[in-house]
Amino acid sequence: MGLVIIGLQCKLVRSEPFISGLTESEVQPFGMDVLKYKDKYYQISDQRIPYHRDKTEDDRFFILTLFGIANEIEANGAYIPSIMRVQLAVGLPPAHYGAQNEKFIQYFSRRGVVSFTCRGKPYSICIDDVACYPQSYAAAASMLQALTTVPLALVVDIGGYTMDYIRIKKGRGDLVSCDSLENGVIMLYNKIISKVRAAQDILLTEEEIDAILRGQSVQGLQVVVQVVERGATKEIFNEARHPYTWALLNSVPALATESKQELYALKGTPPDLILPLNHCPFAARCEYCMGICREQMPEETTLSGTHKVSCWLEHPNAPKVESFYDRRKK
User: Fold this and answer.
1) 67 near 19, Cβ under 8 Å?
2) Which of 105, 157, 148 shows the shortest CA–CA distance to 128?
3) Which of 138, 178, 202, 253 could lock 10 by a disulfide, CB 3.0 to 4.6 Å apart?
4) The whole model's pTM is what?
5) Which helix (H) or strand (E) holds 5?
6) Which of 137, 166, 195 is the last residue of a domain?
7) Do 228 and 242 touch, CB atoms closer than 8 A?
8) Which of 73, 97, 83, 64 has the alpha carbon at shortest distance from 4?
9) Does residue 209 sit within a domain?
10) Are residues 127 and 231 in the same domain?
11) pLDDT in tens, 53-102
């Protein structure tokens, strides 16, 4: 038997990622990208499987895993016509890890020899070992060796449905300081789609949202994205100058906090997209807002070759304010 080691939901894979959606049918559908398992046919679909805190309640997640296993076997050139032994590395949100990891391991390992056909090719696999890790910890798997020399690090894993974070001390995960927040990328897409549809009667797609965030034109829509600060990574994290950037940094969990903490959330609402935007878009939610912020759009100030910011606080006559960094030192 051949041996294949596969890491799901982490960087230790060679095949391309795919959407976590499935269609199921009793008869063979059109197309080659079809998986047959237990006399049923499955295809990857754009219609994602709804979020489940406990994935073992739905066997569709195992079908998605079979797609992933077949892709990895082919990407590694490891296919053989006999039974292939598979070792899986899987991830769970850290907040649910303690309660679900044994059950999740059994979800994959209790099935014995699994036979299925993918893209017309027969596979026989035996999942003989499953290693389960907190998702945010698994996201750092490729750099754990380097993190052994770092006294304290915060790993943030932004997934489809959850945003997971865990504190790592010298390469070892600290499950005391971790959490899983249900505001992953897909959840944010859904919130944007819902709010725009309710407020503007416009049904956006995820592709259109991506285009708008990149400042690209979308047919029939006014693009109102404005970059208020840009710079190198160290400049944004250590020398940010815009109050909106400070607010974002303030929402990041503090490394020194042992227990779970309530993250900072902006107050107020974004500007109305129907009205013309002729002033600072952050004015209504900014605690440093001045009269001119509600009247004129600030010009971009160049702080370095890579660091630029658009804020009236950079004007020579603006008052000096207590920044995010000043408050953090207290």
Assistant:
1) no
2) 105
3) 138
4) 0.67
5) strand 2-7
6) 137
7) yes
8) 73
9) no
10) no
11) 899 999 999 999 999 999 999 988 889 999 999 998 888 888 888 899 99
